[in-house]
UniProtKB/TrEMBL annotation:
ANK repeat positions: 39-71, 134-166
Pfam family, one: Ank_2
Source organism per UniProt: Champsocephalus gunnari (Mackerel icefish)
Stored InterPro entries: Ankyrin_rpt, Ankyrin_rpt-contain_sf, ANR22
Protein name (database record): Ankyrin repeat domain-containing protein 22
Entry keyword set: ANK repeat, Membrane, Transmembrane, Transmembrane helix
Gene3D superfamilies: Ankyrin repeat-containing domain (1.25.40.20)
Membrane-spanning residues: 87-108
Amino acid sequence: MGLVYSQPACRWASSGDLQRLYSALRDDSAQLNVQEPISGDTPLIAACRRGNLRVVEYLLDNRANAQLTNQKQRTCLHYVSKRTFSLIDYLLIAILMPILLLGYFLLLQKQRKSVSLMEAVLSSDVNIDAVDYKGNTALHYVCLRKSQILVPLLLERHADTNIQNNDGETALDVSIRLKFRKIVNLLKKER
């Protein structure tokens, strides 16, 4: 069960309905950065939460404000960094893995989509070092997810590796605690 948005632009961005989103923005351009009354989500945040790459690209092309935060002080980059595979994705990968490695190809396709989504958001003016209410940055979240493919993208944009979250942990500390050796090595090179 997902979020239910009252703002039409957020609803269409979340569902990935580009045609309705286009109509909503054509009728009222203020909808581009409208925020939900309760969650504070914008259409860009809603699209990033659901991983709707085409919608994210469309919103960024139309100059959606990537700096806006919701009630949890999270930007769209936080949600891109937090995205994981769904239970259905894991099941499909596990079921299809023995069948001509179809599961592996599905996994690669999902990873490519994550990279594309991250690259789209990083191409905007998003604050790469923004901290949420837990003190976590996008780098903290990709380290928590053990996302070896997304960590380098953030490091290339000079993500600050020294920011401590509310638990006093840097992204390196998180990676060491969770024993993600490859990510630890990547982060140590940046220091």
